[in-house]
Amino acid sequence: MNAKDSISQHSQWKTLAFERFMQIVKAPYGDFQAIWNLASALNDEEGFRRTVEFLSLHPLARAAIQNRLLLGAIDLQQLHSLPSETLGHAYSDHLLRNSLNPIQSQTVENDYDYLIAHLAEVHDIWHVVINADTSMAGETKLQAFVAAQLRASRFSFAMLAKNLLKAAVEDLDLAEQLMDALAEGWRMGKQAYPLFGMQWNTLWDIPLIKLQAKWNLLPDTIAG
Questions:
Q1: Long-range contact set of residues 89-95: C-beta below 8 Å, sequence gap at least 24
Q2: Which InterPro entries does the record associate with it (predicted)?
């Protein structure tokens, strides 16, 4: 590919990324198809390479990427029967209270597919372990946490930008709440143990607070 073709291809990529970004800004809150479309548009080789290189610095994530480890089927009712203090109960309760289902893994054919599939299937688990609800502030806190944990993820930063733009256009009263959530999630993500690649299906029966303390996710372990 010559330089002219490369510039043209990059320009087309940026145009598509901006189009998909505006689609998700205009889409109803929680539109998963718009989210997948944005993730697909932001799939650029350089950004993906940087993210994988950063994650692979940690043995847990490196092994998960190499082996493409996924959680598989999840039985919410079985998890909900676990003691109330356990991760499994807290996770299942979060989904059932919000009328949600576990996000099913997408087809995984390469490392990028795995990255997206794993982040999708652990999305609500991370909601629980960082104590982020499903409000826009909670989602902003979670996306800031993800951005800090992945460092170079275009998708996470785009999702943060989407929430801020929606607040600016639709509900400016949320601005301070979202900025506080963003700051808290970013700080937590930088100070917490790296969670990417965690095999949560081996941890369901462990008390949630014990895991949060182990991974530096409790409020009194996070510097202000």
A1: 90/128, 90/208, 91/124, 91/125, 91/128, 91/200, 91/204, 94/124, 94/127, 94/128, 95/124
A2: Coq4
Query: pLDDT for 85-137, tens place per residue?
Result: 999 999 999 999 999 999 876 778 888 889 888 998 999 999 999 999 999 99
* 81 shares its domain with 28: no
Same domain, yes or no, for 34 and 62?
no
47 is a domain residue: no
The tens digit of pLDDT for each residue in 38-62 reads 777 776 777 788 888 999 999 999 9
Tell me the Cα Rg of the chain.
Answer: 18
Q: Which of 120, 128, 61, 118 is nearest to 88 (CA)?
A: 128
Q: In angstroms, rounded to a whole number, what is the distance separating the alpha carbons of residues 177 and 10?
A: 36
- Concatenating the DSSP letter of every residue in 15-43 gives HHHHHHHHHHHHSPTT-HHHHHHHHHHT-
Q: What domain range includes position 136?
A: 53-221
